[in-house]
Structure formats: structure tokens, C-alpha cells
Amino acid sequence: MRAKSFGFTLLEISIVLVIVALLVSLITPNFVAYQRQKNLQLASEIVQTSLTKSFFSSRSRPLIFGVKALGGQEKITIFSCSYPDCSSPNAPEEIPLPSRIFVVQSFEVLFLPPHGDISPTSFTEEFSDITVQNVYGNHKTLRVYKNSGLIELLP
What we know:
The chain is α+β, with helices and mostly antiparallel strands. The protein has one helix at residues 10-60; strands at residues 63-69, 75-82, 90-96, 101-103, 107-112, 117-118, 127-134, 139-145, 151-154.
């Protein structure tokens, strides 16, 4: 008479391990791509929020508020300065972008009191595009309109 076995056979365990490995190999690339996209979205929201904060601050206080960044850097700077001279900013606040995300081109946007108008020296065209990009080449672009101060996230 043979004794009953209550364990799993080596074949059953091997099949389960193959199925789990297959599922992990299918899910991992999608998760990594999702995480990269979310970090890029977060970076564009940080820039957009900083611009909006500066716009409303310039409407409520008699100071120039601005946002600037150097191309290739992983941070942006919000600052304020006395109106009309902005040669020495007061208490700049550096805001880091998520890891491996940087501003493509340098920019500086100044919002003038009392209505939050964009300074003519910020950019000469009707609008300016601000692009953040990750090291994998994906990017998001914000468009800032000179006359209205509208900030739009482009698709």
C-alpha cells in the first residue's frame, strides 16, 4: 500500500514559476513606462503651478514675480524683485524637478504688477513654449501666451 503525498510535485512548482515569470516580464515594461510618463506629467505641473503662483502673486503685491530655469537643469527658480528694477532678486526659491527630468531650453518669465502682465523682455513672440523632457526623449510642452498670461499644456 502506498502512502498519500500532500505536497506539490516538482513539475507543478515549475509550471507555476514559469507562469509567474511570464506575467512579471509582461507587466514590468508597462509599469516603467507608466512611471516615466507620470514623472514627466508631474514636472510639467510643477512648472505650470510655479508660473500660476507668480502670476497671482504679482497681482496681489507691488513686486515683480518670475520663474526661470537654465536649459539642461533639473530645477526651476521662483523669485521676486522690486518694481521696476529686477537686477537683484529677493529670496529665490529653487524647486527640483523629478529625477532624470530637465528643462530643455532656458527661459525667464516675469509678471509685472498690478495686473500680472508678462514683461516684454520675457519673450518677443506672441507666445513662448517651455519644454520639460526626460532622459529617454519623452517631453511635455507648456505654452505661455504673452498678452493674456494664459498657460496651456500642449498635447
